[in-house]
From TrEMBL:
The lineage of its organism: Bacteria, Pseudomonadati, Pseudomonadota, Gammaproteobacteria, Cellvibrionales. SUPFAM superfamilies: Phosphoglycerate mutase-like (SSF53254). One of its GO terms (cellular component) is cytoplasm. Transmembrane segments: none annotated. This is Histidine phosphatase family protein. Gene3D superfamilies: Phosphoglycerate mutase-like. GO terms for molecular function: phosphatase activity. SMART domains: PGAM. InterPro entries: His_Pase_superF_clade-1 (IPR013078), His_PPase_superfam (IPR029033), PGM_Phosphatase (IPR050275).
């Protein structure tokens, strides 16, 4: 059985027109704190979304363990609808959170399928540094729920899954974020 830990990236600098923001200074420190906490465990495989904020969240642990972080496109942030201006992405996501997975378009459906298909292939203990929507997509799939928003994973929270011969199973949700801001 493989344990899979989905870690939400740290808080990124705000800016509606920044396509791939970096972590805030505070979140760099929180990523280091997370790394110190996780480094007491045995070294396991590290995977990150290609987004900068996820890679920066993974880096302190990779440095402590002296291991490489594998970049995986399958766990990147949800793609916005084609043609949506970058400045409207946050508004779209906030509206999208209140919808159902069966109402999504083909692009988001393919994205969601790729995530779950990829996670199902993980056969060794792994930490995956990813995004709010990735985690909610996986949790909804494993629960068999249609609502997009299952919970509000806080920055650097850890949601645990197990992958055994039967498939993926939700073990525990990560700590929830108190505010309504993504």
């Amino acid at each position: 059985m493989a344990k899979i830990f989905l870690v939400r990236h740290g808080e990124a600098d705000k800016g509606v027109n920044v396509p791939d923001p970096a972590l805030t200074e505070l979140r760099h420190k929180q990523s280091e704190s997370l790394a110190n906490k996780l480094s007491t465990q045995e070294k396991i495989h590290l995977i990150s979304s290609p987004k900068l904020r996820a890679q920066q969240t993974a880096k302190p642990l990779a440095d402590l363990w002296d291991v490489k972080v594998v970049i995986e496109d399958a766990v990147t942030e949800i793609p916005a609808p084609q043609g949506l201006p970058l400045g409207q992405r946050l508004t779209w996501i906030r509206t999208f959170l209140d919808s159902d997975w069966d109402q999504i378009d083909q692009q988001q459906s393919a994205w969601r399928r790729r995530i779950n298909d990829f996670l199902a292939t993980i056969s060794k203990d792994t930490i995956v540094f990813c995004h709010f929507m990735v985690i909610n997509s996986v949790v909804a799939h494993l629960r068999g729920h249609q609502k997009v928003k299952q919970f509000r994973p806080d920055y650097t929270s850890i949601t645990e899954l197990h992958n055994n011969r039967i498939g993926l199973h939700l073990v525990s949700l990560g700590e929830e974020k108190g505010s309504q801001i993504l």
